[in-house]
């Protein structure tokens, strides 16, 4: 047997063993939703989480990363808003988005699923769910899985993604806050990446997203920095950038704006929740602010468009690099290590 054939057999056997081990672990879990997420991860789907305040462009980012067709973005965006108006806070529930290959909308709850053939019907269902969550204090759902028909996706997908829009911990209600903490504990460990969002003009407040129990200790970016990516929206149209941006080349422009936002995020060097050096940062423009680029940068609009295209390609490469069983196992093994690191950090702080 040639060395090439021998290596191929060993690699295949290792992969089979790894998949079996992971499947045994998955079957031991109580949460059916978590089981589904891990099973699809083994098959090659990449699981991503997004975290941040409302109205920062998360839904638009999600739809672009999922590779939804341009002509369908506005309609799908409206459906996924669950009837909420601009400026309204998100519900304390994780919304998980993925593709449906049967050409229908499907909503999965912990104990049931519903299928819909029309946009109006699925939109009505999501509005009713939102009303129940907001109006019935005892009605709590950890997550809702929303499968979007494949006809809304571009045909160029070389990787499939499921994205979890995590709720923010900003409630004064103790019961709701504990509910949200439970959701974060459940889903952050299995996420290939956690994308943290902030608007460019509010970059100095980025670290405040980690001023809460679960995200400044066990699963925060100080403990698991390679899992996090910072997404800065309305980045080029922010006043501080608009006044200072001066570049005539794509790479230098990319480096300048990333460094600008890193410095602004860490303007207080003594802040324990500052953006770690290992956390990658991507400044973006989407929706209406993207349309403002030609007006704000009449001489540099094509350059900025090229920079934004590069950033999106870089993000997709990052996501694609996490695909597969080996990467999934690495993520699961990292959790106990992150707990050890958290304990070490705490011990050093107490000295």
What topology does this entry show?
Layout (H helix, E strand, L loop, with lengths): L2 H25 L4 H11 L3 E6 L6 H9 L6 H8 L13 E7 L4 E4 L4 E4 L2 H17 L7 E7 L11 E5 L8 H14 L5 E7 L13 H4 L11 E6 L5 H6 L5 H16 L14 E4 L3 H5 L1 H4 L4 H20 L4 H26 L1
Parallel strand pairs: 1-6, 1-7, 2-5, 7-8, 8-9
Antiparallel strand pairs: 2-6, 3-4, 3-5
Helix pairs in contact: 1-2, 3-4, 9-12
Total strands: 9
Question: Which outline best applies?
Answer: globular
Output mean pLDDT.
Answer: 79
Structural class: alpha/beta
Write out the strand line-up for the largest beta sheet, numbering strands in chain order. Answer: 4-3-5-2-6-1-7-8-9
Q: How would you sum up the major sheet?
A: 9 strands, mixed
Q: How much helix, percentage-wise, in residues? A: 40-55%
As residue ranges, the low-confidence spans are 1-12
Give the terminus-to-terminus CA distance.
60 Å
- Strand residues, percent: 5-15%
């Amino acid at each position: 047997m040639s060395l090439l054939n021998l290596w191929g057999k060993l690699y295949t056997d290792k992969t089979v063993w790894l998949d079996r081990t992971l499947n045994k672990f998955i079957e031991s879990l109580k949460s059916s939703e978590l089981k589904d997420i891990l099973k699809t991860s083994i098959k090659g789907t990449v699981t991503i989480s997004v975290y941040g305040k409302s109205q920062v462009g998360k839904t638009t980012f999600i739809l672009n990363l999922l590779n939804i067709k341009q002509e369908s973005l506005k309609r799908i965006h409206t459906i996924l808003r669950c009837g909420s108006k601009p400026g309204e806070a998100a519900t304390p529930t994780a919304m998980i988005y993925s593709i449906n290959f049967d050409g229908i909308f499907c909503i999965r709850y912990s104990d049931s699923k519903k299928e819909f053939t029309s946009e109006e019907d699925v939109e009505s269902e999501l509005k009713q769910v939102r009303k129940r969550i907001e109006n019935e204090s005892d009605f709590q759902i950890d997550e809702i899985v929303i499968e979007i028909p494949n006809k809304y996706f571009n045909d160029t997908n070389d990787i499939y993604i499921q994205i979890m829009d995590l709720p923010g911990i900003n409630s004064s209600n103790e019961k709701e806050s504990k509910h949200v903490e439970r959701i974060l504990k459940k889903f952050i460990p299995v996420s290939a990446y956690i994308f943290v969002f902030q608007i460019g003009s509010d970059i100095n407040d980025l670290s405040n997203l980690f001023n809460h129990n679960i995200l400044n200790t066990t699963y925060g970016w100080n403990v698991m920095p390679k899992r996090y990516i910072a997404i800065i929206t309305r980045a080029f149209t922010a006043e501080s950038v608009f006044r200072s941006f001066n570049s005539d080349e794509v790479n230098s422009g990319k480096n300048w704006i990333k460094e600008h936002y890193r410095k602004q995020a860490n303007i207080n060097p003594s802040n324990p929740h500052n953006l770690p050096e290992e956390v990658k940062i991507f400044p973006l423009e989407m929706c209406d602010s993207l349309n403002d680029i030609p007006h704000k940068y009449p001489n540099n609009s094509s350059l900025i468009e090229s920079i934004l295209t590069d950033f999106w390609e870089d993000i997709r490469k990052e996501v694609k690099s996490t695909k597969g069983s080996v990467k999934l196992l690495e993520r699961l093994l990292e959790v106990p290590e992150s707990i050890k690191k958290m304990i070490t950090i705490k011990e050093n702080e107490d000295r």
